[in-house]
Amino acid sequence: MQGIISSHEKVPRASPSTGEVQAALKDYWKPVYSPKPVDEDFMMKLLGVYRNRNMHDFDFENIELPDAADFEDVIGAVRHSAPGRDGLPYIAWKAEKEVSAYILSGVSDHLAEQEVPEPGTFLHNFLDDFNQEYVVFAPKGIEEADRHAPTRAPQNLRTIFLINSDNKLIAGATKRRLIRPCMRITLANQRGFSPWASILPQYCCAGCLHADI
């Protein structure tokens, strides 16, 4: 994309500076992705009601961490996609699938054994870096001017997050162990068009890697 315009402008300006583009993106998207206040007491009460009504279907006690076989299956199934900050694509992991599965399985086991790290410690800094990602702003739709200089207002962009492939593979292997027990307690009308469109499995899996641990 060549440039970006303010949401108030009707005619795109020519060649905006990089700083102007960055400022416009931050002004629009920062409030969207910034942390929002949460009523924790109400949330815990709601989860308590949900737990009491569905406890008879809980099947979480026997969940085990993904093993090397899980990682081999996930590595073999992933399709090519843009890599994250380290530039390492899936095909690199596929080149030596068994070795890759062994390494990622070991990392997954090691992270699961750790206590909540204090800020400033090596593990805390590692996890902070591990969860960093690029954000790509892709133009929505097709416009006549796109052949010469694609220009969009911030709200007409689609955000695509690119996280490192090792992070996604660990999350994918963890998903394999969580999907069945999570779906057992997810209402049919909240499952979306795919098993992972429902909020509960996404929350559980995201918490494995992206929680403040």
Descriptive labels:
disordered C terminus, 213 residues, two-stranded antiparallel sheet, 49% helix, mainly alpha, 8% strand
Any overview of this molecule?
The chain is mainly alpha-helical. The protein has a domain at 66-210. 49% of the residues lie in helices and 8% in strands. The strands form two sheets. A two-stranded parallel ribbon has the order 1-3. A two-stranded antiparallel ribbon has the order 2-4. α3 packs across α7 and α7 (165-184) packs across α8 (199-210). The two termini are 36 Å apart.
Strand content: 5-15%
Q: Write down the Rg.
A: 21 Å
- Mean pLDDT over the residues: 83
SS-based structural class? mainly alpha
State the helicity in percent bands. 40-55%
List strands and helices in order, with pairings.
Blueprint: E1 3-4, H1 18-33, H2 40-54, H3 68-77, H4 90-95, H5 97-112, H6 122-130, E2 133-139, E3 151-152, E4 157-163, H7 165-184, H8 199-210
Parallel strand pairs: 1-3
Antiparallel strand pairs: 2-4
Helix pairs in contact: 3-5, 3-7, 7-8
